[in-house]
Every structure is written in structure tokens, then in C-alpha cells.
Specification:
The protein has 16 helices and twelve strands. The protein is globular, with a radius of gyration of 24 Å. With 379 residues, the protein is of the alpha/beta class.
Length: 379
């Protein structure tokens, strides 16, 4: 029987030599799942504050693995397109938000260097305003370039041709960047791209919002390479959204990723756990609770058992190792707290992050079966 991963994975790997980012990954479990499945990963800078620290931590774990990380600024959310008339700005990104976005770019650039691809400030469908943003944030973009980050500059349509826009952007920034062309909202046509390639000196091109699952993928890549066979191409698309839903899959059932999430929950629900003299049987996981506790649960556990100061810091640095010291995990009050957390996790079933990670790997396959040396397991 052909597995879901065997059906989906080859299509995503057949990128015709394009560096592809499955983007739209907001949950830390999704990010880890994609990285462990051997893919690059893409997300947006404007993540919910509750998810940002752990998601950012997961992205940083790509360092020295060969995987690449793409971060969109989230500027697409500013604009609402109308059936008639020009697009309108509904949720403008304020200077304060741009500061937050750049702060995240800079933190990750320090960890990932050239593995990081970031989208420069722009406003979809607003060419003049995009140029003004490049002027305003030129110094911060230059610093990101100095840190090694790959800068994607979206080229918006307007009074200037794309080739003329490219010339102005080069004058503003003064360093080599990747030309980004929107392929979804206010989409750039193939004729627009061909004209730009003929009249501008462009070595690297990123297709914003297009992936190998799009019907126009092959024609687009072949047309671009017909004009510039040597061009360095990259692309991103929101893959997860296309694979979730309770209908629209085989036989009208759930789509691939939703089906995987359901299977993960069912598999957990079918497990049983036995009662022993010591309470709930943890099998082989008693020795490494960091594999199933969330970071928040680890903190709650350490506080609940009354650790303070240096002892608390050591436990949070490596909870597995600390529990082995002096057989801490057998101390009655510690064992009771472990039991409670295990039952919460097991009957949950599992943390959301853990289920997301397992669902991604079930859908797309797995190539990285071991964690990077020194990496903490959060779920």
C-alpha cells in the first residue's frame, strides 16, 4: 500500500532545481516536522506573541543542518483586493511593527547567516510606497546583509517597469539582493518577468507565493530558464493550507494533512498504560521527560517541586540529567508531579506541538531521524 508520504513527497522534491520553501508554518511542531522531514521551512515574522519564542527557537535549530529558513514580513495582510477599483490598505504595518519584524530578522540572522532568507519591507501593489520603505530601512537591511542573510526585495508593479524598479532598488541598497516577484496577490505575469530579465541584470529570482504543487509551476520555470538558463531560482508557497480540511480529500474525505493529524490522535488514543506499584508506567520515556514535556510544563514542574536558584537553573538546562542525579525521579514528591504531567500529556493526547510534528512527518516522510547533537527535545 502506498503511504501518504510516498504520494506527496516526490511532487515536492521535484522542484526542477529551484530552492523551495513550504511556507505558512506557524506552529513550532510544524516547523520541527518540516525540518525533520528534510525540507526547508518558511514562516512569517508577524507570529502570535504566544508562539513566537518557541517558533523562533525551532527555526534557529536549523543552524548548520543544511536546511534553509524563509521568513516573510507578513505585508500581504495589509492589503484587501476589491472586485472593482484599486486595492485598499486595511491593516497597515506600523513603524513599531517593522521594528519587531527587524528584531526577529536580526536575531535569526545572527544564528543562521546565509541559511536565512528574509523578505524586505514592501507593500503589495504599492510600488512607490515600497521604494520609500526600502529608503527608510536601508541601513537595517545592509546590516542583515552583513550578517549573511539573503535579502529578497519584492518588485511591485506600478508606473515604473520592473527593470526600472530594480535599478532604483539597487541604488538605494547598494548590495546584491534576490529579486522577488509576487505570484499570487497582484500577480506578476510571465511577460512581466521575461521583460524584466531582458532589460535588467538579475542573477537571483524568488517566486513569492508559488510552489511545485501549482499548475503553472512547470511553465513558469521553463519560461524563465528559456530566457536565463543560468539564473538562481527560489520560491515559496503556503503548502499547509492546501492540505488541511475535513473535505476535499480522496473520496470527499479529509485532505492529506488533516487525515494525518486525525491518525496521530487515534494512534495515541488507542494506547493503554498499565498501573504498577509505582503508579503510571512510563515505559522508556521516564528517563527523558524533555521528549514529551513542553518547555512551559518543564518550568511548571521545576517550580512545583520547589527548586530555587542554581538548582532550578541546572534542572531547566537539562531536566533529564538532573532527574538522574541522586535518583531524583524516585523521590516521592517528584514522582507524583511527573505522574500528573504524564497523565495530562498522555490523555491530551500529547501536546499540540507534538501532534503537529508527528502529522507533518506522517504526511511528508522523514529523513532526519535523530536530533542535532546538543539539541533540547521540547516535544
Amino acid at each position: 500500500m502506498v503511504t501518504r508520504a510516498e504520494q506527496i513527497r516526490p511532487k515536492l522534491l521535484d522542484t526542477r532545481g529551484v530552492v523551495y520553501f513550504p511556507s505558512g508554518s506557524y506552529n513550532p511542531g510544524e516547523i520541527r516536522g518540516f525540518l525533520q522531514s528534510g525540507f526547508n521551512v518558511g514562516t512569517t515574522a508577524l507570529l502570535p506573541k504566544a508562539k513566537l519564542p518557541l517558533a523562533e527557537w525551532e527555526l534557529a535549530q536549523a543552524a548548520d543542518t543544511g536546511a534553509r529558513v524563509f521568513i516573510d514580513s507578513g505585508a500581504f495582510s495589509e492589503i484587501q483586493f476589491q472586485d472593482e477599483g484599486p486595492p485598499i490598505v486595511v491593516k497597515p504595518i506600523t513603524p513599531e511593527k517593522w521594528d519587531r519584524i527587524f528584531a526577529q530578522y536580526e536575531r535569526l540572522a545572527q544564528r543562521l547567516g546565509p541559511q536565512l532568507y528574509i523578505v524586505a519591507p514592501d507593500r503589495v501593489a504599492f510600488q512607490g510606497y515600497t521604494l520609500s520603505l526600502l529608503n527608510r530601512y536601508a541601513d537595517r537591511l545592509r546590516e542583515l546583509h552583513r550578517l549573511g542573510a539573503q535579502i529578497i526585495v519584492p518588485h511591485q508593479k506600478g508606473e515604473l517597469s520592473l527593470a526600472q524598479f530594480n535599478k532604483k532598488a539597487k541604488e538605494i541598497l547598494g548590495f546584491p539582493f534576490i529579486v522577488g516577484v509576487p505570484m499570487k496577490k497582484d500577480a506578476t505575469t510571465l511577460s512581466d518577468i521575461v521583460s524584466m530579465l531582458l532589460y535588467a541584470n538579475i542573477d537571483r529570482l524568488h517566486l513569492l507565493g508559488m510552489g511545485p504543487n501549482r499548475p503553472a509551476w512547470t511553465e513558469t520555470i521553463e519560461t524563465i530558464r528559456g530566457v536565463r538558463p543560468d539564473i538562481d531560482l527560489s520560491a515559496d508557497s503556503v503548502l499547509i493550507r492546501a492540505l488541511v480540511g475535513k473535505t476535499g480529500g480522496p473520496g470527499g474525505g479529509p485532505r492529506a494533512l488533516t487525515a494525518s493529524y486525525q491518525e496521530v490522535a487515534e494512534e495515541l488514543g488507542e494506547r493503554t498504560f498499565s498501573e504498577t506499584a509505582g503508579g503510571i508506567d512510563y515505559t522508556d520515556l521516564i528517563s527523558e521527560p524533555s521528549a514529551w514535556m513542553t518547555k512551559a510544563d518543564q518550568k511548571r514542574f521545576v517550580d512545583a517541586i520547589g527548586l530555587r536558584g542554581e538548582e532550578r537553573r541546572r534542572a531547566l538546562d537539562d531536566l533529564d540529567e538532573w532527574l538522574q542525579e541522586d535518583d531524583h525521579y524516585l523521590w516521592p514528591h517528584i514522582e507524583l508531579e511527573l505522574d500528573a504531567l504524564w497523565e495530562k500529556w498522555f490523555t491530551g493526547p500529547g501536546s499540540v506541538e507534538w501532534r503537529k510534528k508527528k502529522g507533518i512527518k506522517k504526511t511528508f516522510g522523514e529523513t532526519r531521524t535523530t536530533e542535532k547533537e546538543g539539541q533540547v527535545k521540547l516535544f
